[in-house]
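hi support,

uploading two proteins for the ticket. first:
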Amino acid sequence: LHSDTRHTEAAAFLARQANERNVPVSVDVERDRYSDEFDDLIDRASFVFTNENLMKEIIHRRVLSISASASANDDDSDDHDHVDANLGGAIEYIPSRDFYHDVVLLCYRLHTLANNKARELIVTRGELGAVHCKMEKSEIQYNTQMLKGNNEDDYSTLMKTPQLTIELVERHETWVRIVLQTTTTIDNYEGDGCRGILIETFKYMLCMVGPPKDINIVDTTGSGDAFVAGYLFSQIVLERMGRENEAQQERSSSKSE
């Protein structure tokens, strides 16, 4: 199921139906429509397409504004709200924040909202080409010792301190690998009545592709739709090839036995 976010209420309804039936959803975010249905539609998509400028606008609205709301209503917020508050505050402290940091921030926000870590974000950059972002791996650690016996001063300090780091760990000509880590304080973890620190580490792979070279561009009408269609078609082909390879390996294994 694919949507360009027009007729947003109908698209969001269809996306909910698709999710219930395990049908993949893709969304081409051509502009921010500032509605709950729009946000719900994006949150339900496995593939999110957008452009660099719109990506920054969505980060500001969906990360910083949500974070500010979570901080203002701290008494009523849940654990995910604390992550939002830390995330929004920490963004301002990221040294040398650049385009790749923003891609990872949006991808992180997308998969935490829907609790779907297999989601993919594709960002177009005009004459600079496009970037594909997907999470490779995630790890979760819980530590009660970091609060030094649940000391109240330590707990209050951590609650007010942005706890997010983003580090580019590998860079190549066509891809980069970035690690994002969040540290969140949690009360009554798993009902044991103990305060602790939840450390989540996410590894992202960003692949870059440039525009075609040595061509004479006459008209770009429909190029965005063609780009999305080509990407989705490639995913279908790759998935089919993967199933066929698995079936071939099973047949070969059965024959050898």
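and the second one:
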Amino acid sequence: MSVERDTVQIPDDLAFASFRQQCESTQGWQQKYSKLGVGVWVQDTSEGKAVHRMKCRIEIKDVPAELVYDVLHDNEYREKWDKQVIKTFDIARLTVNADIGYYSWKCPSPLKDRDVITLRSWLVTDNDYMIINYSVKHPDFPPQKDLVRAVSILTGYLIHSTGSGSCDLVYMAEADPRGSLPKWVINKASQYLAPKVLKRIHKVSLKYPEWKRKNRPHLKPWLYPEQNNLPTMSLDVLSIQHAESLENIDESALSEENASDDEGIKG
């Protein structure tokens, strides 16, 4: 499943097709949770292993795919509903369907909070809406002392339309959180936090039309590139963020007794 990159590139149609296939595949995945239309799968990881792979799927019977797609793109709305976000903003645009962005989020106590710089790209097909990202290094946004810089190897959403007012939403993440995480953190993320996040996305999607009507209803630069006022950037400025170049935080000895119920799943 791992995607090895030596240079920064805009994902092409093959990359999106591969992402869709991974979202839909069951081979090599172990189901950890299944309840009320929500399922979570993980790929085996040993204690302290750096890279963690997880995907979560939810059946949404009362929200169309295109609306969920808008919710996931709308950073202004995310700051209203995402309880874990510390700061999120777009940095620059690369093409009509790719940009560079920053996201920092609260992790469940007693873990340290994380942040990430990613190249994000999106694609809409007949029945599918996809948003994918991977980590890059930006010279103006180095790691910060009070946050752990995580690494997204391949993270994203697949929204598959199942009707005029329904869809299936899959969140898949292959990431290195840059920390030797205890097993309880991994179990909590897959069996509790991931389902909670997707259920919340469903809930806030129901409220989005009313909110958007009052908040620049015609502004959707992810659909209308001519609305995008971000500065342009050349790929030459960016480089691949390799996990090995970042500090690794050993949190493996942290106890679950002092853990909070914060969601701590990166969007």
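thanks. also noticed: The longest strand covers residues 151-163.
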